[in-house]
Design a protein that fits this description.
Layout lengths: L3 H45 L5 E8 L11 H13 L3 E10 L4 H18 L4 H12 L23 E10 L1 H6 L4 E4 L4 E3 L11 H7 L23 H27 L7 H4 L4 E3 H7 L4 E2 L2 H12 L2 E4 L7 H6 L4
Parallel strand pairs: 1-2, 1-8, 2-3, 3-4, 3-5, 4-7
Antiparallel strand pairs: 5-6
Helix pairs in contact: 2-3
Length: 327
């Protein structure tokens, strides 16, 4: 039997333990339940909130082909398709900041834009020209009484404006090359058009440390460019002819088809892998003008009379949250 002092001390320890238990378990469950509830409420509110006319913004960021909402070509293309088919979206902006990546992902984005333009017809060239003049006008962001006579909403389709921030290289160029207007910043890195295939080779190192690899193949080229085998010039030539060149030709064809009437540079130089600043990219004809995303946003919202609405956001996913609720 505990004496009163010991009993009081034991009760204090038990109470403290239960408090910690509640904090670490009930507290976590309450937090989890609250977050789930907020997620569902957000979706419900979004479902019942009336849709308003807006400028649809789709983002491309980081490596194209990465498993993210702003990197995966299929996800980006899906957002674009949503914007193209949404009656409430008045104009489409693609915000791009990518060093390149997967050609299949960039083709998915590019081909959707091409088909959209083919199926709906051309935009009046004067519209794009007038939009660029407003963006270049230094008074636009500060003109509270701005009135636009630029006719955008009655065009046969939605104008697509690509805005490059830090960089748009390689596969990123292929993704946005068919936008009606392409704008970069003066110091943006733009270009690096080409295809590359990298292969590490440690055959000499493996030989020195006495490590070997046994590979059984169905054909002589099944393990082509294996890092365990000495570099084979014949296989390098085959890889270039069967993998690099065909994809490169597809890339070149897309760029020429999209910008042929605007390009002011020798094709051998354009497709050499060089990159240019935004200022020089305007001179080559790869992009149409330089500005920055803040000025472009201000100008477009004033011209159209609608606010930006970012599509590149994943809605709440219970499955993803349960897998890692604190990611």
């Amino acid at each position: 039997m505990l004496n009163p002092a010991s009993e009081h001390e034991a009760l204090g320890i038990l109470k403290q333990y239960l408090t910690v238990y509640k904090r670490t378990n009930y507290g976590k469950l309450s937090l989890l339940g609250g977050i789930i509830l907020l997620g569902f409420l957000g979706n419900i509110v979004g479902f019942f909130t009336p849709s308003e006319s807006h400028i649809a913004v789709i983002q491309i960021s980081g490596e194209i082909g990465a498993d993210s909402d702003v990197g995966d070509g299929q996800k980006i293309a899906t957002h674009l398709l949503d914007a193209m088919t949404n009656d409430e979206s008045s104009l489409i902006v693609i915000e791009a900041n990518s060093p390149g990546g997967s050609p299949t992902d960039s083709q998915t984005i590019n081909e959707l834009i091409v088909q959209y333009k083919q199926s709906n017809g051309p935009i009046d060239p004067e519209v794009a020209k007038n939009i660029l003049s407003v963006i270049k006008d230094p008074t636009t962001p500060f003109n509270e009484n701005f009135e636009s006579d630029i006719d955008v909403k009655t065009q046969p389709r939605k104008l697509i404006v690509a805005v490059v921030t830090k960089q748009c290289a390689s596969a990123c160029i292929q993704s946005i090359i068919n936008a009606d207007v392409i704008i970069g910043q003066r110091a943006s890195l733009i270009g690096n058009i080409g295809v590359r295939l990298s292969s590490i080779n440690w055959s000499e190192l493996a030989k020195k440390v006495g490590v070997t690899s046994t590979v059984i193949t169905s054909g002589p080229y099944k393990d082509m460019l294996s890092p365990w085998k000495a570099i084979d010039e014949e296989q390098i030539l085959i890889a270039k002819e069967t993998l690099i060149e065909p994809v490169f030709e597809q890339f070149k064809s897309d760029v020429i088809a999209a910008r042929a009437d605007k390009l002011k540079i020798n094709y051998d130089v354009l497709f050499s892998g060089l990159a240019w600043t935004g200022d020089d990219a305007v001179k080559t004809g790869l992009i149409d003008a330089t500005s920055n995303p803040v000025i472009v946003k201000s100008a477009l919202e004033k011209i159209i009379g609608d606010d930006y609405k970012i599509y590149s956001k994943s809605s709440f996913s219970l499955g993803s949250f349960i897998k890692n609720p604190f990611k």
